[in-house]
Amino acid sequence: MSNRYPWIALSNTTLGMLLATLNASIVIISLPSIFRGIHLNPLEPGNVSYLLWVLMGYMLVSAVLVVTLGRLGDMFGRVRMYNAGFAVFTIGTVILALDPFQESAGALWLIGWRVFQGIGGALLMANSAAILTDAFPAGRRGMAMGINQVAGIAGTFLGLVAGGLLSQVNWRLVFFASAPIGIIGTVWAYKSLKETVTKVEGAKIDWWGNLAFATGLTMVLAAVTYGIQPYGGHPMGWTNPLVVGGIVVGLLILAAFCVIETRVAQPMFHLSLFRIRAFAAGNVAGLLASIARGGLQFMLIIWLQGIWLPLHGYRFEDTPLWAGIYLLPLTAGFLLAGPVSGYLSDRHGARAFASGGLILSALAFLGLLLVPIDFPYWVFAALIFLNGVGSGLFTAPNTTAIMNAVPAGQRGVASGMRATFTNAGMVLSIGVFFSLMIVGLADTLPQTLTSGLAQHGVSPTVAAQIGALPPVGTLFAAFLGYNPIENLLAPTGTLAHLAPANAATLTGREYFPHLISGPFHQGLVVVFALAIAMSLIAAVASLLRGGRYVHDELPLAAVTVSRP
Question: Cβ-count burial of 221 within 10 angstroms (0-12 exposed, 13-18 middle, 19+ buried)?
Answer without folding.
Answer: buried
